[in-house]
Amino acid sequence: MADLSSVVRGIQSGDMRALARACRLIDERDPRAFELLKQVFIHDGHAYVVGITGTPGAGKSTLVSGLIRLYREEGKRVAVLAIDPTSPYSGGAILGDRIRMQQHFTDEGVFIRSIATRGHLGGVSRSTGDVLHVLHAAKFDVVLLETVGVGQAELEVTQLADTTVVVMAPGLGDDIQAIKAGILEVADVFAVNKADRMGADATAQDLQQMLSLRRVPQGVSKMQGHTAVSTLTKGPEAEAGEWVPPILKTVAHKQEGLAELVASLAKHREFLMTTEAGRVIREQRRAAEFRAILYQALIDEVDARFADEISEKLQDVLDAKIDPYSGAEALSRSAIGDET
Amino acid sequence: MADLSSVVRGIQSGDMRALARACRLIDERDPRAFELLKQVFIHDGHAYVVGITGTPGAGKSTLVSGLIRLYREEGKRVAVLAIDPTSPYSGGAILGDRIRMQQHFTDEGVFIRSIATRGHLGGVSRSTGDVLHVLHAAKFDVVLLETVGVGQAELEVTQLADTTVVVMAPGLGDDIQAIKAGILEVADVFAVNKADRMGADATAQDLQQMLSLRRVPQGVSKMQGHTAVSTLTKGPEAEAGEWVPPILKTVAHKQEGLAELVASLAKHREFLMTTEAGRVIREQRRAAEFRAILYQALIDEVDARFADEISEKLQDVLDAKIDPYSGAEALSRSAIGDET
Predict the structure, then answer these.
(1) What is the DSSP letter of B100?
(2) Contact state of A287 with B96 under an 8 Å Cβ cutoff
(3) Does residue A21 share a domain with residue A124?
(4) Cα–Cα distance between B257 and B249 in angstroms, integer?
(5) Which of A102, A234, A288, B217 to pair with B23, CA 20 to 30 A apart?
(6) Quick check: is B297 in a domain?
(7) What does the pLDDT look like over A261-311, one tens digit per residue?
């Protein structure tokens, strides 16, 4: 591989091959990735990051493809990161629906990448966070962060986005009711896609009703994120530090409703950038990300410096000489140094 | 709260209130939880842990309810842990489909709990792993670990199970194709549920075809788990260190096919306990869990001991005085001590 500084320069001039290299270093947890990230980091970022999540079968990929087209018409450079529920064993990303984005693969203003996760602690969101900083450095205007699965890790990933769109569709299965509740709180904008199908109005009304429940003020929770906003939520617009997710109808494969969606995203971005509540959200996200980077750095450092001690203690655990909790405690104390 | 040793004794005598207390300590990341886990840990465990995952709408909860009934008929004590894709903000578990299990709530041989995850690093699987050790200590015979969502974290959780059942149903949406691929590699047994519906045979054939693709030998991947088995896979039975997931048809709400499912689970357990390949899988899982416990212990220790330093450095990051990667590196080095 070329030396790091040439990769850094390549990223900063938007060279696609340098970008792909950086993503590979991050995927492989190469120690050089950390050095690279230190060098390319931009305070306050550059790209507007839009998370796209929602129930399987709702048409997320088609919607992402439609958004790419609209942003490209505005002359914006667009990156797409697809978070796929890959097997932790093969480590390979599944491109499945990516086929729908083929039309954009030859467009030089579009960078598309699947994030392959290796099942390590906090893997999805940490790799994705690192790749986002590379995309900021490469001066992309918009990043679309699409999750294929719907689960805890996918909900966490949306917290790396400035704005999260939750995509629903009429008439999906019954467990979806449960998933919806988890999804509800990460949504900044709802898109009821396939809105030309039966039941679209019912789905929209359903969401409207769940949203009104959410408006009940709650105690500030331990986790940081939208709390400051959701406790203030009152109306269907951003006003005086309040944001209530609008519910839009789209038919992505006909490009219907997508211009309105882009307009809603712009409004939410303005809310984030110009209000006190928006400032608080951004700061909380930066704090959460700093902690995640710190924890990963700690783990990497201990893995590198105490490899032998870890192997020995592991053997003791496998031989039933010590329980894993006591073993971990002993190692952790010897790595960090005792209190006294 | 009563003192720790009385909670430990309560757990060991199977007292439900002591169990609930222990789960709460673990949920809340109370430092006493770690001490408790050291005291109750049993090498080689006790309970047989069955993971139940699969596409939304496939009828997982109904199937779990049916399995509880069968195991109870055998006189076994059963615990159910439901992994729900809760909001990281509210921290509350969504009980939604739990309603279907109401019939079992009054049964003293059944313990049912939702695992609420707080969005912290590796949260889902770490809390679940800790709770599992408490259930081993309480001498449950069977633990059913059900995931409601389908995503990276949910796939990881299945690695805490001895045997994982992937539940599918005929005729679900198209994104499911992509999810299926991720799910495929964690499956030890497939259940095509709602098998009285149109398309059940097609779904089973689909799975059969995907399984035959999986049989192509691959290089041993970095991640540990089924690798040793899947590279050896040849036939539809366990023989000479080989295991190929059987595909069963079930109609859970009519209790059809569930006895066959329980028999398949028993076969897989025997495979794990009596073959060399099974021994390797069990050892790899214990090693992976030891690392996860170690990383969490490190993070907790650093959080407790370096709270002030972390706050200061975070402020520098927010003030754009230092990038988060350099900040994390400096903190991590000062916590662990420099190389020289």
Answers:
(1) G
(2) no
(3) no
(4) 6
(5) A288
(6) no
(7) 999 999 999 999 999 999 999 999 999 899 989 998 999 899 999 999 999
